[in-house]
């Protein structure tokens, strides 16, 4: 399997603290890969470097073999790297329809057009409608996002990332804070993502990780502690000691 | 829902946000009818139209892109001086002056946009304020060009379109300013409902998500800042041309501060806020000044404090309710 996203010797320190410590990581094409680790292991710092929110102290990031280490955030999105956020980052005053239309419009390269009417752009309308149905948010597409229930907002978070048609999708704790009743819906959404999208899931919820991932990387203190199949990770004594054991007490 | 049905509904929903509301048409009809209805107040109406255009400019950056500014007078002044100087030294044609004012202010906006892009609201307030102060002092010290504290005198304007001479009653002035306001409003209305306008709202709502959605935030903000600067420059040009005079006052801090008040009164982010705010502000100022010329600032101040503390919700609520009733009437008539 070929790699779609790779890091080479990636490091990031804040003052004296090393949040990412010489990480070599590979995401294979079509992967369902989970990144786990205890609180403060540096998972979000790692993702923020991949997506360009933070600049690494040293090392390199490649997307489809192209060096993207120094590219701005929006340029990475254009090259096929999209993400969701651990804490919802939505356009509160917009409707789900407008938010999906915005992402679609940027992907189609319409964003700098100052005069075109959105509704006259049939390509944009069609692709927006497709995302709304796929993520089952068409029934609420006219409501203000800020007024929707949390579980629905979580769906929109994923839908908006997917609307960028990424080849690599980073899901940062998609189930965080979602009440039990709405969790199933969300997990179905994640499971239904098409195979040609490579997914990196950053998650605390072991249930979701073991159900979804075919490969797991364990991050502890900014370093890769272990990597392998879920089966291997579940029985790895170092992983159990550093993470799973600790998780069981919590 | 089947795909074609959904696509139609998506198209309708996107269309609904840019459809002309009956109240909008009434608003513009009244604005032009005011020319006939209030022939004695055309000079005041002209001032209102110019302030409305200036406020529309601030609304573009504040209401739609979330950029706060306490120095918008820099662009008003730039436009006024550019139009005034052009009329005095090159050509007296009003449209040439209008374009010169917009161009000069737009250029200033483009050049200063990198300064306001970064940073928080507070740094933006300070930087915009600083730029306006610098410009004020420059205009003051280059008095051979600008006339300094005496102002730029001796501006003579040619008739608009070669037909309509500027008169002392403000007849030509009002129609000219209102027409420019209307035209620029139409363009702004188009822009805010375009993909570009949608991306501005995205940046205002959440810059982090906007960037993660592929929006080049800095470029878009620079573009709208330049556009808004050109709009403010147009307001400055109208001011210079219709009063045939430019003084340092166009760059003064109170211009920028008043403008904030206008948008606070009218509400930001729906294009009409600046226009309605300008009408309310000017009428209030005129009314209070007519019975207490010395202390009108006191009453304006008191009004604003009460307005911001609670009156705004009440007034906006009443207006919204009236608008909703009006919309129902309109729909009923259409059926």
Query: Class of chain A, according to the CATH hierarchy?
Result: Alpha Beta
Q: How many H/I helices of chain B? A: 14
Strand residue content of chain B: under 5%
Instruction: Give the overall shape of chain A.
Output: globular
Global shape of chain B = globular
Instruction: Give the SSE order of chain B as H and E letters.
Output: HHHHHHHHHHHHHH
CATH architecture of chain A: 3-Layer(aba) Sandwich
> Major sheet of chain A, described briefly?
6 strands, mixed
Overall structural class of chain A, as computed from helix and strand content, comes to alpha/beta
| Helix proportion of chain A | 25-40%
Number of structurally distinct domains of chain A = 1
| Biggest interface found | A-B, 52 and 38 residues
Task: Describe the structure concisely for a colleague.
The complex is a heterodimer of chains A (250) and B (335). Chain A is an alpha/beta fold.
Key attributes of the depicted protein:
heterodimer, A: about 250 residues, alpha/beta, Rossmann fold, 4-stranded antiparallel beta sheet, B: about 325 residues, mainly alpha, 14 helices, about 0% strand
Question: How would you describe this protein?
Answer:
- The complex is a heterodimer of chains A (250) and B (335).
- Chain A is of the alpha/beta class and 250 residues long.
- Chain A has one domain: 3-Layer(aba) Sandwich (Rossmann fold), CATH 3.40.50.
- Helix content of chain A is 36%, strand content 25%.
- Chain A contains 9 helices and 10 strands.
- In chain A, strand 4 and strand 5 form a beta hairpin.
- In chain A, helix 3 crosses helix 4 (122-134), helix 3 (96-107) runs parallel beside helix 5 and helix 5 packs parallel to helix 6 (180-191).
- The radius of gyration of chain A is 18 Å and the shape is globular.
- Chain B is mostly helical.
- Chain B has a domain at 38-252.
- Helix content of chain B is 76%, strand content 0%.
- Chain B has helices spanning 3-16, 22-37, 42-62, 73-89, 94-117, 121-141, 143-146, 171-192, 195-205, 207-212, 217-243, 253-266, 272-291, 296-334.
- In chain B, helix 13 (272-291) packs across helix 14.
- Chain B is globular and about 70 Å long.
- Chain B starts with a helix and ends with a helix.
- The relative contact order of chain B is 0.16.
- The mean pLDDT of chain B is 90.
- At the A-B interface, helix 2, helix 3 and helix 4 of A face helix 1, helix 9, helix 10 and helix 11 of B.
